[in-house]
Amino acid sequence: MNIVVLISGSGSNLQAILDSLPHQHSSTPLGTPAHLHLPPSVNVKAVISNKSNVFGLERAKRCDPPIPTQVLALKTFLNRNPGSSRQDWEIELSNMVNSHKPDLIVLAGFMMILSPAFLNNIHQKPIINLHPALPGAFDGAHAIERAYDAFKQGHISKTGCMVHYVIPQVDRGEPIVVADVDIHKQDTLESMENRIHETEWRIIIQAVKKVLNV
Ligand code: GRF
């Protein structure tokens, strides 16, 4: 079963998926425990980024064999296609995704909001997204920072992260896996963020297992 992963940055969650696929050797392992491994029937077919020169692309290239990577930056697309729109970019992106015949599309640190222009052009395949907050808590951007501010103001005592199905409403799709993340009194933003990321690396694989039923 083919997975296509969309990224925008460091790709640590892409790495978590790669490390759960021992048959797709990855050279910078995060050390995924065996019970979180995915079967050889699953593979990452391609990694697509909306930004060039991000480390997530490097992680794919370091696999053996290297995983194909593609970049489709919005600004570059608009410059190369005068008169085109963001919707045209989304359709181009969905065509790129479809070309790999995915069984599952994973948004792992993908920072662009995808409208029905993209969603409607993906041929009936599940699209899932990782969000570093609990359902309905801090939708949208800078969720981790907003959760930390809420903690410092005494409004929350814990936070979390989730993987959910992607729908047009940002971060509002049906949750697939949700995990609470404790916030400690002495936490800095960084220490809390690290705890969230470590939890994300686990739930992203649990979500792939659940959706692909493997
Ligand atoms: C993750 O926290 C993810 O939830 C958020 O962006 C971050 C990306 O991390 N959308 P990475 O690129 O997977 O390292």
From TrEMBL:
Pathway: Purine metabolism; IMP biosynthesis via de novo pathway; N(2)-formyl-N(1)-(5-phospho-D-ribosyl)glycinamide from N(1)-(5-phospho-D-ribosyl)glycinamide (10-formyl THF route): step 1/1. The keyword Oxidoreductase does not apply. GO terms for biological process: 'de novo' IMP biosynthetic process. GO terms for cellular component: cytoplasm. Gene3D superfamilies: Formyl transferase, N-terminal domain. One of its GO terms (molecular function) is phosphoribosylglycinamide formyltransferase activity. Keywords: Purine biosynthesis, Transferase. InterPro entries: Formyl_transf_N, Formyl_transf_N_sf, GART. SUPFAM superfamilies: Formyltransferase. It is an enzyme of class 2 (transferase). Residues 1-208 form the Formyl transferase N-terminal domain. HAMAP family: PurN. This is phosphoribosylglycinamide formyltransferase 1. It comes from Wallemia ichthyophaga (strain EXF-994 / CBS 113033).
